[in-house]
């Protein structure tokens, strides 16, 4: 009897822990948001200084976007793993 | 549960096939892979069937798409790498079509399963290693040793370069997979908000709470429409990013040590 109660309590604590962990993992998404803000902000300020050269840097901008965004997406995957598996 | 956001990713067998204990069933995932390959190549073939010197609407759309991918690939690899252009173009078209098919309600999103994206990413990874060694021999390993690094820090740089080389297929596959998965879950969660807020009684019974609930449901509906537009952007952007990273990785195999 006591063992059952203890097991159930343990499962509840594990569920609560994975929910808290999923929330904490989502902080990485916010950090990726900061990175993307830096990236696009610097791109826009550079593009305003020299609009003629801006179109040529589109590929580089998207590459930076992809590499930065991947980190946020990884933390989102960790959150999904904690919530749905 | 009716509003389970994960339910949409379930794989269902359409034609069960069993070969010697191995499950080779034709699933809804396989159906949409075939559909995106057939529709993608069919559209391009139809657009270029009646070629004219002054292109009509479909032909010039197909030409613009081709030129767009060709320019991206040539900028990354250079003209010697154009032998890989068919691969990059096929990957781009397949991923784009699969992502766009996934945007239809009740359709299956092929790239929301990591096995699909990992297969494509690992193919590119082994192609880079195989072609790099076949073409450059031992010089291929120069990609781990950048030029102009002081000898004192060189071992650490080489270690980091090797690590970053071997985590490439992981990030390459995970980026496409996680973007499609997260986007579609978000759409379904916001769609669920519309239903549950419209029926909700959390603000108590009565006319005022119904008006508040329905008003918030309308806000959620507008958010769903905006997110759908965003998902179309992501569908195209992720296909472009996957193809562009393929080009960049292939440029390592063609010119090792230049980056």
List the helices and strands and how they pair.
The complex is a heterodimer of chains A (85) and B (259).
Chain A: H1 2-25, H2 27-49, H3 51-54, H4 58-84
Helix pairs in contact in A: 1-4, 2-4
Chain B: E1 13-15, E2 18-19, E3 22-23, E4 26-27, H1 28-47, H2 57-77, H3 85-102, H4 114-136, H5 154-166, H6 168-199, H7 207-254
Antiparallel strand pairs in B: 1-4, 2-3
Helix pairs in contact in B: 1-3, 2-3, 2-7, 3-7, 4-6, 4-7, 6-7
Helix-strand pattern of chain B? EEEEHHHHHHH
Counting DSSP H or I runs of 4 or more residues, the number of helices of chain A is 4
| Beta-strand proportion of chain A | under 5%
Helices and strands of chain A, in N-to-C order? HHHH
Task: Please characterize this protein's 3D structure.
The model of chain A has no long low-confidence stretch (mean pLDDT 89). In chain A, helix 1 runs antiparallel to helix 4 and helix 2 runs antiparallel to helix 4. Chain A has one domain: Up-down Bundle (F1FO ATP Synthase). Chain A has four helices and no strands. Chain A is an all-alpha fold and 85 residues long. The longest helix of chain A has 27 residues. The radius of gyration of chain A is 21 Å and the shape is rod-shaped. Chain B has 259 residues and is mainly alpha-helical. Chain B has one domain. Chain B has seven helices and four strands; from the N terminus they run E-E-E-E-H-H-H-H-H-H-H. In chain B, the strands form two sheets. In chain B, strands 1-4 form a two-stranded antiparallel ribbon. A two-stranded antiparallel sheet of chain B has the order 2-3. In chain B, helix 2 crosses helix 3. The model of chain B has no long low-confidence stretch (mean pLDDT 88). Classes of the chains: A mainly alpha (85), B mainly alpha (259). Chains A and B meet through helix 4 of A and helix 2, helix 6 and helix 7 of B.
